[in-house]
Each structure stands twice: as structure tokens, then as C-alpha cells.
Specification:
The protein has 153 residues and is an alpha+beta fold. Among the domains are: 45 residues, no CATH class; 55 residues, no CATH class. The protein is 31% helix and 14% strand. The protein has a 3-stranded antiparallel sheet, covered by helices on one side. Keywords: Metal-binding, Zinc, Zinc-finger.
């Protein structure tokens, strides 16, 4: 069933289609304020300040890197920074042992009989990066040579 939108002056003659009437005048007191609640997760990792030129900025609490912080401005640059930076100061991400990671991924490939291209799957790369931002993805050829190294051990 489709909905028809008609202004208040026009009425539909079809009985089986509902008509939604739209008022022409809007009471200004009923319109919500344009101020939005700030819900970005970056607020807990940064502190806002105004620089010496009067520009609003946000500073990372972990490494003190600064970013623009206009009201209504995007936070995507700071979110990308926070993924890589935040947590290292408080121990959330221990240093990644790349050799140990490659050995473990080789054992997973052998144990579950995965193809070497498993390490190049977009979902696996995203998952590994989510678990630790310092992880370096490897190619299928590197996975093959790592499996052979593990086999020789």
C-alpha cells in the first residue's frame, strides 16, 4: 500500500489510499534547538582548547597531537588517530611481536587446512587490524614461506 502526501487544501478521492495532511505553518516554539548532543567517542580521548589564534582545537590525551575541533565539524581524522594512538600509554595494546604473529597464523593455516590466500582476505585483515593496530598484513607467498619455516622447526 502506498502513501500519498497532499497539502492541507487537497483531499484524495480514492478511499483505499490514506492521506497525510501537512500543515503549512510551523510553530517556532515546537521546533527543537539545532544544538545536538555531542556523542562522539573521541571526547573521552581528547580535551578541547582554543589556540593562541583563537581557533578551536582538540588535543589527544595520550600523545598531545592537536586537531581542529570546530563545532559541527567532523571527527573522522581524530578517530583514525585514536585507533592507532590511544591505549598505548595506559597499556591497552602491548607491543606486537610480528614474528610470533606470523608463526601463529602459519599454525592456523596448517591446522585448519586454509589456503595461503586466507591471509589476504579483507575480513581477516580488518579483524587483525581491529585486534591490534600495529599488525602488518602478509601476502600469500609470505604465508607459504612461513608455513615451511614452521614445518622445518
Amino acid at each position: 500500500m502506498s502513501l500519498m502526501f497532499k497539502s492541507a487544501g487537497n483531499m484524495s478521492t480514492e478511499a483505499d489510499e490514506p492521506v497525510i495532511q501537512i500543515e503549512e505553518e510551523v510553530d517556532e516554539n515546537l521546533v527543537p534547538s539545532s544544538k545536538r548532543i555531542k556523542t562522539s567517542t573521541t571526547l573521552e580521548f581528547s580535551e578541547k582548547f582554543v589556540d593562541d589564534k583563537g581557533l578551536p582545537k582538540a588535543k589527544c590525551k595520550n600523545c598531545n597531537k592537536t586537531y581542529m575541533a570546530r563545532d559541527g565539524g567532523g571527527t573522522s581524522n581524530f578517530i583514525k588517530h585514536a585507533v592507532k594512538c590511544v591505549g598505548r600509554g595506559n597499556g591497552s595494546y602491548p607491543p606486537l611481536d610480528q614474528e610470533k604473529y606470523r608463526e601463529k597464523i602459519s599454525k592456523v593455516i596448517v591446522k585448519h587446512n586454509y589456503p595461503f590466500t586466507f591471509v589476504e582476505h579483507e575480513g581477516i585483515i580488518d579483524l587483525l587490524y581491529f585486534l591490534h593496530p600495529d599488525v602488518k598484513s602478509i601476502t600469500r607467498n609470505t604465508a607459504k614461506s612461513d608455513v615451511l619455516k614452521v614445518f622445518r622447526k
